[in-house]
């Protein structure tokens, strides 16, 4: 089943190889995810089962640990990804009442799908928009910023001597 992950294949071919399997998708095979995470992120593990014909039913579980930069302190932050998906793959729109319970329809208009791209989408959807450590757990940069003393603001009053000058004049 591992050859099926990296090629764009017709749904009929995927249905013909209806089976179960598990694969580790390396970061190099997921270019959009590679841009969103730190380079030392490990592979994403996917277990998947394909069944049926029209629609093709896909049951998958995506899990792994991805490392991203905390947007508050810029230190590495590890995020657990663990997602289950149940999709009915079809080339045409199908009424939701015709789908098995718990399945969501994914229309594939051109009839071809790269499974690795689909799993990459799921991982990207699991990532927070602005990843941050929990409050108080950020790295050294945040602590250093908090310890900096705020400089005393010098206030200038350009007309402060004006009252004295006017008094002296009269």
Which keywords apply here?
two-stranded antiparallel ribbon, single chain, 7 strands, alpha+beta, 26% helix, 170 residues, 30% strand
3D architecture notes:
The protein is α+β, with helices and mostly antiparallel strands. It has one domain. The chain is 26% helix and 30% strand. The chain contains six helices and seven strands. The chain has a five-stranded mixed sheet with strand order 2-3-4-5-6. It has a two-stranded antiparallel ribbon with strand order 1-7. The longest helix is centred in the last third of the chain and has 12 residues. It starts with a helix and ends with a helix.
Q: What is the topological layout?
A:
Elements: H1 3-6, E1 9-10, H2 11-16, E2 20-25, H3 31-36, E3 44-51, E4 56-69, E5 76-90, E6 104-107, E7 112-113, H4 115-126, H5 140-147, H6 162-169
Parallel strand pairs: 5-6
Antiparallel strand pairs: 1-7, 2-3, 3-4, 4-5
Question: How much is the average pLDDT?
Answer: 82
Q: Ranges with pLDDT <50 over ≥5 residues? A: none
Give a count of the beta strands, DSSP E runs of length 2 or more: 7
The run of helices and strands is HEHEHEEEEEHHH
Helical content (DSSP H or I, runs of 4+): 25-40%
Strand content: 25-35%
Overall number of domains: 1
Spatial extent as radius of gyration: 28 Å
> How is the largest sheet built, in terms of strand order?
2-3-4-5-6
């Amino acid at each position: 089943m591992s050859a099926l992950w990296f090629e764009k294949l017709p749904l009929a071919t995927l249905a013909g190889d209806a089976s179960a399997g598990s694969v580790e998708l390396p970061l190099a095979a997921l270019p959009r995810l590679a841009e969103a995470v730190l380079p030392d992120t490990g592979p994403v593990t996917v277990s998947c089962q394909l069944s049926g014909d029209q629609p093709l039913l896909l049951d998958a579980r995506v899990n792994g640990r991805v490392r991203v930069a905390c947007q508050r302190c810029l230190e590495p932050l590890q995020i657990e990804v663990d997602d289950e998906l149940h999709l009915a793959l079809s080339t045409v729109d199908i009424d939701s009442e015709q789908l098995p319970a718990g399945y969501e329809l994914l229309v594939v208009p051109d009839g071809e799908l790269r499974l690795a791209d689909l799993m990459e989408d799921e991982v990207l959807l699991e990532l927070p928009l602005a990843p941050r450590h929990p409050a108080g757990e950020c790295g050294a940069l945040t602590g250093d910023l908090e310890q900096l003393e705020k400089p005393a603001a010098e206030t200038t009053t350009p007309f402060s001597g004006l009252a004295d000058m006017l008094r002296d004049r009269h």
